[in-house]
Amino acid sequence: MTVPSLLPRQDARTQRDRLEVLTVLINGPEFDPVLRGGVLKIPPSHPVYPWNCTVPDCARSRWRRYAMCSVHADQWQEAEAGGMTRTQFLRGAEPLAAWEAPEEMMCRICPQRPAFSLRLAVCFRHRNRWLSHLKRHPGADEDDGCRRTT
Ligand SMILES: [Zn+2]
Ligand SMILES: [Zn+2]
Fold this sequence. Notes:
The structure is a single chain. 34% of the residues lie in helices and 0% in strands. By secondary structure, the chain is mainly α. The protein has two domains: 41-100, no CATH class; 104-150, no CATH class. The chain starts with a helix and ends in a 14-residue tail after the last helix. Bound molecules: zinc ion (2 copies). Residues 107, 109-110, 113, 122-123, 125-126 line the site of one zinc ion. Residues 53, 55, 58, 60, 68-69, 71-72, 96 line the site of one zinc ion (ZN).
């Protein structure tokens, strides 16, 4: 006796019927249109899967805690320790420009690989090579990843 013989047999019609039911449900009015299609693009302030920082107009994605970006989460921890309420903090916090691109970015040296460091726009391998280079040449410019010649 083989394992497939233990499974309930499904004929082609059963599979087709299930696919039709699934297709009808996905195209129904209660199915979130964001979840349709091949590549899902969740908007930053999606009601179920939000990923934006909750500080008004902050363009950065939220970090693991506090539903804020890492900078605002750090600021909030200090403010909370000082007795500030979350509402007061959110009203007074300065919004920040996007640090990371919301879209996938490719390595600028080998464009077939995704960028690991979005600041440098290079893949994991090139980022490590760059960090290794900085260790050997401490005077290299760390801001833009390019050595400037003057
Ligand atoms: Zn933020
Ligand atoms: Zn690369």
